[in-house]
Amino acid sequence: MTARPATGTRPDSSPGPAAPGRLFDIDALRGFALWGILMVNITFMASTHRGTGVEDPAFGSALDTAVRITTQAFFEAKFYLLFSFLFGYSFTLQLASADRGGATFVPRFLRRCAGLLVLGLCHAVLLFPGDILSTYAVLGLVLLAVHRIRPRTAVRAAVALTLLTAAGYLLLAWALATTGGGGIDTAAVTEQGRQATEELRGGPASVIGAHVRQLPDVAFMLAFFQAPAAFSAFLLGLAAGRIGVLSDVSRHGPLLRRLQWTGFTLGTAGGLVWAHAGHGYSGTPYQLVAVAVDMVTAPLLAAAYAATVLRLLAGPRGRCAAAALAPAGRMALTNYLGQSFVLALVFTGYGTGLVGRVPPALVALIALALFGLQLAFSRWWLAHHPYGPVEWALRTVTLARRPRWKGGST
Fold it and tell me: Which one, 160, 233, 304, 400, has least CB within 10 Å?
């Protein structure tokens, strides 16, 4: 493996001068994670049956099923973990930057979390209930409280939290099996999906009302599934940042290869179990077992993805890959919210109201096309501005002053 540019350098074809203290591998990884998150989120915005355990009756072909299983096995519950890992890693870079500049870190970070919370709540109500920003804002405060933890302790805590959460789901599966409970009312769920579809095809007030009604279920899922997994990834990112794992990827070739072998083997197996349980087994003990399996194996698959991208970035074509992905990753917040805005125009009554009318294969193609446009837009924008528009607004809140708006990335 050939060495990647060191901190503060950039690929020859990337827009603008290098950002001091930034690692393009981190930005490129974040851009890659942004694509995976889009591939999952679009399925929930395209159909109200996603996540209910009942297949959309309008799309039941073999191709439709294959696309759903692929998304669930290889994308769902994987890419937000990579994003969360990078949140923890970037937290250490922010700490180091504050130390070098003599800045007071805590007030800045608190303002940043407050800004993320406001953005997340607006995002959840107006565009997409499955928001992650508000969760990051709350978990960021917990990360701040424990940020002095040693790297080895952080790793152990992350593993323990993951295993405890998985064990909790196994206990629930056992309890459900012993009581003879489980299963869902397919007819009732189908009718609820039909009603939600009609609401999302209505006017803005109807769309917002539908989002608000989904929030309690989303909050439950966030609290008992995504939040523990995300915080575990925060801790792993914190540990990796403390020892500078991404500062010189070429030193970690053997580790990256082991992550690929382990992650793609166990992670893929766990992903297939997760996907299988979601087709006809919702509300059963088996599905809860599958959740426990996914809690343990999804981080391995996410790590395998990250290792693959890092090895690609360290290879002879790494410059081209970084030039394509890094701009999108650098303005990931703008792109994340922008994805929801565009898809809301496509699938809800804000625009064309195509929810429930687009087959899964075409949904995946729409996601790929949208991400391609975001890659081009991000590159163009950062050639004229130092930050993405939402990043600029959040930075204004964080610093309590207005940063530079124009002039190309720095």
Answer: 400
Long-range contacts of 158-162 (CB under 8 A, 24+ apart): 158/231, 158/232, 158/233, 158/235, 158/236, 158/239, 159/232, 161/228, 161/231, 161/232, 161/235, 162/228, 162/229, 162/232, 162/295, 162/296, 162/299
What average pLDDT does the chain have? Answer: 89
Taking only the tens place, the pLDDT of each residue in 312-348 is 998 888 889 899 999 999 999 999 999 999 999 999 9
- Containing H/E element for 319? helix 318-330
pLDDT computed for residue 248 by the predictor: 78
| 351 alpha carbon, distance to own chain's centre | 25
pLDDT at 224 over 80: yes
Could you tell me the two tokens for 53? 């355990």
Tokens coding 304: 């395998």
> What is the C-alpha to C-alpha distance for residues 70 and 76, in angstroms, rounded to an integer?
9
* The pLDDT of residue 367: 98
Q: How far is CA 154 from CA 118, 137, 240, 347, in A?
A: 29, 19, 10, 41
**Selection from 179, 166, 189, 410 nearest residue 295 by Cα:** 166
Question: What are 139-182's pLDDT values in tens digits?
Answer: 999 999 999 999 999 999 999 999 999 999 999 999 999 887 66
Average pLDDT over residues 370-394: 97
3-state secondary structure 165-183: HHHHHHHHHHHHHHHCCCC
Reported in sequence order, the residue ranges of 164-259 that DSSP labels E, i.e. its strands, are none
Residue 321 · residue 314 · CB < 8 Å: no
